[in-house]
Amino acid sequence: MRTSIAALLLVLAVARAAPAGDATGAFAPYEDLLEVLADLTWHLKDDAYRFPPPKDPTGHDLYQLALRRLENWEKRYPGRLRDVTGYARAEALEHLGEYRTAADLYRQVAALPSPLAARAREGAARAGAFAEAAALPEDAPDVDGAFAALRAKLEAWSKVVTRYGGTPWEPAALAEEERLEAIAARLVVAHRRAVEDGTTAAERALRFLIQKHADSKALPGHILRLADFYAELARDYVSEHERPLAFDEDEFVHRADRALDTYRKVATWDGAREKPEAQARFAALDAYKTAVLGRYR
Fold first, then answer.
1. Where are the domains of the chain?
2. d(CA 286, CA 69)
3. Does 29 have pLDDT greater than 50?
4. What pTM, to 2 d.p., does this model score?
5. CA distance 233 to 282
6. CA 219 to CA 54: how far, in whole Å?
7. Long-range CB pairs of 103-109, under 8 A, 24+ apart, other chains included
8. What's the CA gap between 83 and 116, in Å, rounded?
9. CA-CA distance, 120 to 111, in Å (whole number)?
10. Cα(15)–Cα(9) distance, integer angstroms
C-alpha cells in the first residue's frame, strides 16, 4: 500500500508545490499536497487491530485530517491531479471504515488514464469485499433474529479475514470481527435471565472475547466489561438475599472480590485508555462492599 502512494509522491515531486493559500485551522493542508500525502502514506500500514488510530500533533485523527485537507485542496485547485487526490481520499476512507465510498472513489480513479488505474482497480475490489460484509444487518426486532444476523455477518467477515490474511488489510477485518463478537457478548449478558444457565453463558462469552482478542488494543475494555459483569452479580446477590439470615457473607465477599480483582487489572494497566474509568469503578465497588458488610454484620 505504501508503495502505491510512493508513485504519487514521485509524480508530485516533479510538480510545483501548491501552497495552502490562506487556509487555517487543523483541517487545512499544511503546506502542499505532497506534505498531506506524506503524512497519510506513513500510516497506511498501521495495525488498526493492535494499535489505536494515529493522531497528528493537534490530537486529531490523522485519517480524518488527511481526508479534509485533500477535499480542501481539491476545492482550491479544481481539476488538478484528480487521480492523485481521488486515490488518496479512497485510502483515507478505507482506513475510516467507509468502504463503500472508498470503493466508488477507487473505481473513479481506475477509469482515468492514470498510472494509478491498475492499483485503483485492486483497491476497488478489496474495498468492495469489505463493503459487502459491512453492509449486512447486525440487528433484528427480536433476540433470536439479532443473534442470527450477527452470526451471518461474522461468517462474512471471517471469509474476509481469511482472504486478506497476512496482508496490511487483515487488521481492519479482525477489528470488524472483534466488534461484532463484542456486540454478541453484550447481547448474551443483557438477556442472560431469559435463557437457561444464562449467567454461565454470559461469563463464557465475555471470557471468549478476552482470550481470542488478547492482542487487541481493545483488550482492557473487554476486561472492564467482565469486571462490570462480576460487579453486577455481586449486587444481584445482595438484592436477592436482603434478609439477614439469607445473606451469606462469604458468598458476597467472593463475588465482590472477583469483580475487584478484575477491575484492578485495568486500574493498574499503564497506558490503557480505560485505566481512569477502572480506577473509579474499583473505588465505587470497594465502597459498596464495605457498606454492605457493615449493614449485615
1. 2-131, 218-297
2. 48
3. no
4. 0.85
5. 15
6. 18
7. 103/127, 103/128, 103/131, 109/83
8. 7
9. 9
10. 10
